[in-house]
Amino acid sequence: MDDSTGLLIVVAVVAVLAATLFLFIIPEPSERAVIANERMDVAVLSFDNSSSWPDAQNTLARRIESRLVSADGIDVYSRAQLDALLMEHALGDTGFIEPTTAVEIGSLTGVSKLIAGSVFAVDTAQRETTICTSWQGGDCVADEPAIEYSVRMRAQIEVVDARTGRVERSLDVQASDTTTMRATTTFGGFDSLLADASTSIAEDVVATLTDAYTRELRYGLYASAERKRGGWVGEDESSRFSQSGGVVHLIVHFTRVLRSESFDIVWTAPSGTSVLEEADVVSSGDWRRYLLDVSGLPTGRYRVTGFLGGEEAFSEPFSIVP
Hints:
Blueprint: H1 3-24, E1 31-36, E2 41-44, E3 48-49, H2 56-70, E4 75-76, H3 79-88, H4 99-109, E5 113-136, E6 139-161, E7 167-182, H5 191-213, E8 214-228, E9 231-237, E10 240-242, E11 247-256, E12 261-268, E13 274-282, E14 287-293, E15 300-308, E16 311-321
Parallel strand pairs: 2-4, 2-5, 3-5, 10-16
Antiparallel strand pairs: 1-8, 5-6, 6-7, 8-9, 8-11, 11-14, 12-13, 12-15, 15-16
């Protein structure tokens, strides 16, 4: 069997696997809604550092704060305001804090959660290796000496309820990063690797908080929809629907919600009056399709609003046109 025949076989196998996966995977609706389980105003305290790497704690704290700012359903208290407030009231915020101090910080800032932490190890290493400089037919035909540089950071992060001072979650986290360079190339230092490892830890921490303290659903408006393996696949996603089109299809996938949680849908006319209301009970993993018959409805700007557990999850406008 020559190379071209082997390549054709590989392509055919990949195509078959892709087609098989398509049969099983249900595409998510395009819109995403994240709803906090409770008020999520968060402050990131200064971290402690017992490692031998200076400023590692600040790198990690800044990365966690940055990722939290970008997370849906979570509000982050300004670091500059926090530092000024703690200095004014002579409150320390390095590393892990006493419950009474946590409650006092919560009272002064109004935040509901405090993120405290400590970097307890940063390990750096380098080893001799080789790097490929020329490839042919998928094989390395020339290499040269190189050095692999690596960093591993280990830390502990705590989530503290600022209203009670109770530690709600304690996470032992670690991450590493590596780079390989020609032996003749000057290495700029481990700081960039440390920053990348901190980013990886920050993403894990934020993902843990998101899973623990928020619910999520995906939704979209479509001209039609069809059943697929227990879910719904929308077709012709749109925000404009013709009176002659018949029906607006709202598809909702409850990716992460409470068990047996109430979900209510309200379809609202341009006048602000309710056209149709529906009540439902859902759990994580459920798919739902809700329908609005637009034939006979006047043209104009409408809205569909979803309430999860009595709290507004989304409010999507759409138009009915002639």
